[in-house]
Amino acid sequence: MIQVEGLRKQYGDFQAVKGISFTAEPGAIFGLLGPNGAGKSTTIGCISGLLEPSAGRVTVMGHDVVGDGPASRRELGIVPQEIAVYEDLSARENLAYWGAAYGLRGAALRARVDAILEQVGLSDRAKGAVKKFSGGMKRRLNFGCGIVHEPRVLLLDEPTVGVDPQSRVHLLDHVRALAASGACVLYTTHYLEEAEVLCDRLAIVDEGVIIAMGTLAELRAQLGEKDLLRLGGRFDGEAALGALAALPGLEIVQADAETLTLAVAGATGRLPEIFRVLEGAGCEVRETTLRQPSLESLFIKLTGKELRE
Amino acid sequence: MGFIWITALKDLRRFWRQPLTLAVWVGIPLMVGVLMISLFGGREGPRPQAYVLVADEDDSFLSGALVGMLSQEAAGDYVRAERVTREVGRARIEKGDGTALLIIPAGFGEAVLREDSCTLRLITNPSQVILPRIVEEGLSIVADGSFYAHRLVGEDLRRFADGPPGGANVFADSTVAEFSVRVNRLSDRLAHYLNPPLITMEDAPPPEEDAETESVTTNAGMIFLPTLLFMALLFMAQGLGNEYWEEDRLNTLRRVLVSPRGVPAFVGAKLLAAFALMLCVSLIALAAGYAYLRLDWSTLPPVLLWAGCAGTALTTLFTLLQLFAASQRAAHILGMSLLFPLMFLGGSFFPVEVMPDWMAAVTRWTPNGWALMWFKRIMLAEAGPGPLAAAFAALLAGTLVLAIICGWRLRRRFARG
Ligand SMILES: Nc1ncnc2c1ncn2[C@@H]1O[C@H](COP(=O)(O)OP(=O)(O)O)[C@@H](O)[C@H]1O
Ligand SMILES: [Mg+2]
Asked: Domain residues of chain A, as ranges?
């Protein structure tokens, strides 16, 4: 279990994390979804004890990460965003080293290393130097190094970046299995699809704050089954907005001179009506994008910007 | 403890897989060594030769003998003598031409025979360190020889100095014959003092007041072995000093920093790995050196231990320095900019024995120069157990302090996003 309360992290004048609170339960995958620079890695850093929080409190399995660092670190398994393995050692040697670093020894260690090699599909390359591995293979090994000691709490920081699609499916299955066996998994990603298929609960993070949190169903409900309609063209602010506001069941998410984002229930059927109103207000529509309710549309609705930029 | 061992072993394995890096660390000193030994000669090769200018103002039989002795066969390998006038000699020494100027004042022969006091003046070239020492020691042994000669045959010598008795022009044949026999017997006995000691200077205890000057050995190999070993240790120390940056580059440092054992164990493991590597390289170098130079093997274990500890201390020094850099590249440059001054000033490139005096005076204030000085003392079995224990304690304490600062600095430097 991870409990984060009012976590802040300051880098000089810049606040990367601005008061984040959440709880990740055992046996479940908690997702942190957000664009690059949202503060996901910083949050993970504070939980792992690498970074000292500027304010707030973080506990791992009840151990305060600042007050009782060693105890909390013993519970953790970490898969950092950057590949962190010894290039001159073999896959087996890497796994054995990180297993030993968490106290595994002898036959138990060997058994775990063999099992992980099997699971990440590196058994046949176990003895080769890692520096000759492909990026995807290194990623898989990086993952393996974080779980070799069977941690009760697992921090995964964008573990699938640069992994080929097939290995990715494998890896996600693996993460699910770990959660199913009782581990508490914190998973950060900027891939919506991943968050949607993997996470039991998730928090959407942007610019150091959580802008929405809950199960997938709860988050979708926040969007109210509305479609997201994004229009490109030339919009004459006041007049257009005034006319649109008169239409029922329509919410203006974002508006400027060139783009207009609307949340509308059953948008397909209402397109002619919307176009007519806009035309009447002297606006010009050149481009239309319609999105079904999804995390992405929720993100856009909440922040007024695309997640993938 | 287990984690420290495992981490150190992991590092040794990594080093082993980078044979090129190892080869460079050890290879550079080896190349320099081959170069220097081919210039100065090792055990069998030509040795450094003292070039003594002699102003013989006495021009007696004995002064001639002294000059002859300086260039006699046994000493000939080491000392070459040339007769000059006092003025010419002074001018040449001032220009740095020659090892020393020996001035034998008029009346020297008489004085020796009568055992009167007489001062031989030796003007040495300040830019040479060992060679003038050889000449000095040689002369002092001659002086000792004359002292012993007086104890043994002083009566005869004085008789000769007085000249033939009873106003005769020459000594009676019988007197000369009697004396010759005595001198022959004597020189048999004296040979032991006069010839070998002239060249075996290792056994001469260093003067108390300038204990930092190493006990002189005329063996070039014995001078170069410690120098080159410390050059290798310095190169390794600078390379190993980049280890934290290397782990940062690999991102493994982050895993380490968040592992349960954390920073102290990690720093300890790096020290242990450095110590093991230093010990291995030193063992190979010293075993070869000891065998080649026929040194006393009983000094090898303490010498080896000292080399390992000194190398580890130097590694910690370089590590700490590099932890203040802004990037791995900057760290490397910072390391190099410490490496070369230490190497040159600390007698780890040119041996302190061939350094100009002013530079040799600085040497023992550099960490490697200090360690090198003790290394030689241990190698020549000159260090008493008390001072030796104190030196070891100082070395270990220094390493510990540096390591603690390293650990503190490591967290500051690398605990970031
Ligand atoms: N050491 C640091 N010093 C200053 N700013 C940092 C540092 N590390 C991260 N940041 C900034 O903090 C913000 C959050 O970064 P990060 O947590 O890595 O985001 P994410 O992992 O969500 O992409 C970014 O704007 C980043 O530039
Ligand atoms: Mg990140």
From this structure: 2-220, 226-292
